[in-house]
Amino acid sequence: MNVFHDLIYGFGVALQPPNLFSCFIGVLIGTLIGVLPGIGPVGAMSILLPVTFGMPPLAAIIMLAGIYYGSMYGGSTTSILVNIPGEAASVVTCLDGYQMARQGRAGPALGIAAFGSFIAGTLGLFGLMFMANPLAAFAVKFGPAEYFSLMCLGLSVLLYLTHGSILKGLVMAGMGLFLSLIGQDIVTGKVRFAFGLFGLQDGVGLVPLVMGLFGISEVLLNLEQAGERIILTTKIRHLLPTKEDWRKSAKPIGRGSLMGFFLGILPGGGAVIASFLSYAIEKRFSREPERFGKGAIEGVAGPESANNSATSGAFIPLFSLGIPANVVMALLLGALMIHGLRPGPLMITDRPEIFWGTVASMYVGNMMLLILNLPLIGIWVRVLKIPYRILFPLILLFCLIGAYCINGNAFDIWVMIVFGLIGYVFRKANYEPAPLVLAFVLGPMLEQNLRQALILSDGSAAVFVTHPISAVCLATSFFLLISSVFPYIQRRRRVLDEST
Amino acid sequence: MLSFLKAFEGPIWIALGILISLLAYNESIGSFREPGVGFVGLASGLFLIVIGSVMTISRRENAQQEGKGETKSAMQTSWARPSFKFIYTLALLALYALFLNLLGYVITTFFLMFGLFFDPVKRRWLPPLLASLASVAVTYTVFEIWLKSQLPRGILPWW
After folding, report:
1. What does the alpha-carbon distance between residue A42 and residue A47 come to, in Å, rounded to a whole number?
2. At A80, phi and psi to the nearest 5?
3. What residues of A are in contact with residue B16 (Cβ under 8 Å)?
4. Where are the domains of chain B?
5. B116: nearest CA partner in chain A
6. How many residue pairs bridge chain A and chain B with CB atoms within 8 Å of each other?
7. Which value does ipTM take for this structure?
8. Do B119 and A429 touch (CB under 8 A)?
9. A17 part of contact set with chain B, CB < 8 Å
10. Spatial CB neighbours of A114, under 8 Å, sequence gap ≥ 6
């Protein structure tokens, strides 16, 4: 009953006009950036982070969270109508969503995506409500060694699940860790690795780094792609799915919600992986797997539910442990810290209005999104028609203003441009920037906990394996990294066998 | 350029790892009992060296794998000819960062937006001019007046 009492308190906070307005603006922007290809939730959140400086902390967090889960809703629209995913988690929706649209069933595809997202988002929130508190109570037992190992586990899971080469992911994590060390040392206050640059004395800013790696590099990549988008011009009718559609979609929505939620909790997991896994599972469980890729509604319902549920799950490690599960959460952690809040086991009890207010706002936001995404679908289709040559200067302008407004310093613009170029090169060479950002955010915490654990244990590294929780986390990390190397060894053996 | 990067990605990371390790060593690494400011830096540098070495060793195999799976030729083509728009946009951004404090937000942003909106093929002046003015006016109103972000005034101190 305590949970429901807290939730009612959360609603009381979330329904206050400024918070309600922030929630609306957040989901509106989220849907917009989900619809518009070329800028994802990370880019949008980092651009808008400076805008939240003048806002109360809760309103700011509600708005940023709204952008995140709103983008998951909006992302499906472009996938279904244009065959271009608005953001990465909607890539898989293209496969069947676009085919449905070509067959004149764009309405049910959009409808089931929105309803599936709503159901999954709501179920995910139930999980968040019931799991965050016990986990936070458990996390109070964590010491520096446990936190250090948990962060290692987070990075390992991210590397394990990351697309492409694990070696490239490891390199990115190493670089992110080094970049996080630039600036003042947290223990002694000594400036390190600043190369004599005054602008680096406070370290590399999270916002310019993320905007460069995700926003600017994305624009630079898109500039190379010529051609305009082809948008289906058929009228979108019958947004409400039929009984048959519901029958086919019920189980995928349930499975997607459950799986997405737990993948969201896992450090390194998240909406993208959840949506891909959901699609794979639905195809495998289907009696007619051959329909997948040709307009199967299950191929839309499952992944769309999974990616929305994952967004709710991702809040659990952030609020209860203070550890971001993915890049978006890393940015949210940065935002909370800028607003003077320190997420962790004590935040739920010390600042209940932040936690329960955010949870309740997500319920409200889900309702708003249903209205925004179904009756107002026509508006989003029109937004889709904005040519990229008009869109990209505006994206760049918001990035520039965002980078400058953080500290009122043009140096941050340089940092953003440099990381934009680095991000462009990385992406071209198939290096994922996500491990770099996560390691960058976790870096200071990782360093602090490592040093504290070593000092407290009088220099004994055994502290990481003698503490049971820490040992389990490290063993899991080790297992994940080793298991990801197995396919490489097998390939190598095969190549050697073929050559001999 | 991509083939150069692919061929030398291992050595590049090794070199970077050595550089980071040396920098960390100079910053004092301390001991296990009392880790210094360069302790984790050294660890990250050594980590890069190890991964770079593994990359170097497995480079040949990687090249074979990627040659099979990826559209290598298409990627190489796009690297070989970085588009004019790409370099032009990057140059505009760099100029913006350079002149922002000197000329101020209004003037610099106007020129940047005009440069970005201008289409060299159509060569029409009025639409980009109006779009630039509108974007400067809207962002100035939102960020400077409503959100009280202090944008640089530059040579126009009354703004």
Report:
1. 9
2. -75, -45
3. 175
4. 1-73, 78-159
5. A393
6. 158
7. 0.87
8. no
9. no
10. A73, A76, A239, A369, A370, A373, A374
Digit-coded pLDDT (tens) for B87-114: 999 999 999 999 999 999 999 999 999 9
Interchain contact B20–A (C-beta under 8 A): yes
Any chain B CB within 8 A of the CB of A385?
A: no
Give the whole-angstrom CA distance, residue B102 versus residue B100.
Answer: 6
B17 touches chain A (CB under 8 A): yes
**DSSP strands (E only) in A274-399:** none
How far, CA to CA in Å, does B7 sit from each of A170, A218, A398, B14, B74?
18, 25, 37, 13, 17
Distances in whole angstroms, Cα of residue A432 to Cα of each of A107, A159, A365: 34, 10, 31
Torsion of CA A222, A376, A301, A290, to 10 degrees: -70
Helix (H) or strand (E) holding A92: none
Gap from B159 CA to chain A (nearest CA, Å): 16
Torsion angle, CA of B103/B106/B108/B112, rounded to 10 degrees? Answer: -170
- Residues of chain A contacting residue B72, judged by C-beta atoms under 8 Å apart: none
Query: Judged by CB atoms within 8 Å, which residues 91-150 of B form the interface with A?
Result: 93-94, 96-97, 100-101, 109, 112-113, 116-117, 119, 131, 135, 139, 143, 147-150
Residue B35 in 3-state DSSP? strand
Dihedral angle, C-alpha B7, B11, B16, B17, nearest 10 °: 140
The rounded mean pLDDT for chain B is 83
Would you call A495 an interface residue with chain B, using a CB distance cutoff of 8 Å? yes
CB A253 within 8 A of CB A119: yes
B-chain residue closest to A387, CA distance = B117
Alpha helical stretches, state H, A162-189? 166-181
CB-based contact A45:A332 (threshold 8 Å): yes
Determine, for residues B33 and A454 on separate chains, whether the beta-carbon distance falls below 8 Å.
yes
Beta bridge partners of A151: none
User: Within 13 Å, how many C-alpha atoms sit on residue A209's CB side?
Assistant: 23
Using one digit for the tens of pLDDT, what is the confidence trace for A267-307? Answer: 656 677 788 888 888 888 888 888 888 889 999 999 999 98
Q: Looking at the partner chain, which of A53, A393, A450 has a beta carbon nearest the beta carbon of B40?
A: A450
Nearest to A178 among B34, B37, B44 (CB): B44
